[in-house]
Amino acid sequence: MNVLLGPVFIFTIMPIIPFFLVYFVCVFLKKERKASLLLAMDVTTFFLILSVSVLFNNVFNSKFGFYLILLILLIVVGLIGGAQNRLKGKVDVNRMLRAVWRLAFAGAGIVYIVLFLISFFTYISAI
Asked: What number of CA atoms fall less than 13 Å from residue 9's CA on the CB side?
């Protein structure tokens, strides 16, 4: 079990590593840049969610970070599903989940940068 926890821990601390790793491996194997980029985004989203929840817990001294992210994701699923139902009369679950996952990548990426800078400046000012 420790063999798996080491890379997951490193990828969670630096979520840019799995992004570039997956991207370059897929470009090397498939030769398709767009599909490689989308797959790298999908894989990195998981690590970004873990990183943001840990950073949120550290910055705000709470234990609610992961649950807050899940709550936000559920709200977004409901909003996108409702919009799909109003516009098309039915919900395409695969398309909805893909949209939520890609929005989670963008949102978690921005929040990761902001929380990282906050924690970095807090650490520097404490020295």
From this structure: 6
